[in-house]
Amino acid sequence: MATLSTNRVPGETLGHGPGAPPDPRSPVLSLRDVRISDQADGREIVHGVSFTLTPGKVVGIVGESGSGKTITCRAALGILPAHFEVTGGSIEIHGTDIAELSPARWTALHGLTISAVFQDPASYLNPSIPVGAQVAEVVRVKKRLGRGAARRRAVELLRAVHLREADLVYGQYPHELSGGMLQRVLIAAAIAADPRILIADEATTALDVTVQAEILDLLADLRERTGMALVVVSHDLAVVAQLCDEVLVMRQGEVVEHGPTGRVLHAPRHEYTQLLIAEHERYGLEKFLDPKLDPKEEA
Ligand SMILES: Nc1ncnc2c1ncn2[C@@H]1O[C@H](COP(=O)(O)OP(=O)(O)OP(=O)(O)O)[C@@H](O)[C@H]1O
Ligand SMILES: [Mg+2]
Prior knowledge:
InterPro entries: AAA+_ATPase, ABC_Ni/Peptide_Import, ABC_transporter-like_ATP-bd, ABC_transporter-like_CS, P-loop_NTPase. The chain is of the alpha/beta class and 299 residues long. The chain has helices at 69-77, 103-109, 131-143, 147-160, 166-170, 179-190, 209-226, 237-243, 261-266, 271-281, 295-298, and strands at 29-38, 43-53, 58-63, 84-93, 96-97, 114-118, 197-201, 229-233, 246-251, 254-260. It has a domain at 29-120 and 195-298: P-loop containing nucleotide triphosphate hydrolases (Rossmann fold). The chain is built from 11 helices and 10 strands. A 6-stranded mixed beta sheet has the order 6-7-8-3-9-10, sandwiched between helices. It has a 4-stranded antiparallel beta sheet with strand order 2-1-4-5, covered by helices on one side. It is globular and about 55 Å long.
């Protein structure tokens, strides 16, 4: 049965293998000076991104449109668009350089370690299959459960993302659900195989403020309960302030600033970060900032 459409990412994951609980200090994802080029014209699009993600940690990526945030995420997921290539540096998942992964190995590993949620949930769901069956299919394939057990687990997952009347939602088609509900379904599919890393790329951008806040709480809760690590891409500094331990600021394929969220947002060093914050202050960023994070307050 075809479920999630072919451009899907949610639920696709890289495996970490069964067994030992994650070591809180050992990196689950690390990027070292990653460079990405468009092989069609030889243009380098991303000029060196580095960060390390350990269990339970949240790294944010902010920056102007076209600065390479999504391409960087896609590189880590092994799903770069055609003719894009990692041309420098390295990406490691659980200590394995992903350049060494064969397509078969990717497929075998998908389902357990890395997963993603993007904007525009409707485009990742098959319009002609009830949403619950699509989540159940991820569970069945990735967790190797039988149909009945996969169905029960899918309902649990729909409940876990705070969809009311999960049994009812299970049988509904994508067009019957609101954008916020669809985004929750996508998150349910993305966490169905208990990934260690979730990449949320503008996952709440299209949603209204209340729904956005609920989904951010949900992600924070998952991180807390399961030690899942997160990469959060957002143009919204308030989202970053609320969720992230550290933040990378990108402009034109370059990381212009990288540091603990409190330091970057309270004492930005790069003029582009200062500009971003000045723009955001007009929208009430202050209320999301925790004074405890302000290094100036420590003195
Ligand atoms: N599928 C693609 N085919 C060709 N070029 C692409 C593709 N996706 C991205 N690019 C190019 O790569 C560069 C980086 O794009 P990317 O999508 O990573 O930006 P972004 O920071 O995620 O922007 P936004 O905030 O608008 O989502 C841009 O110059 C963009 O035009
Ligand atoms: Mg993007």
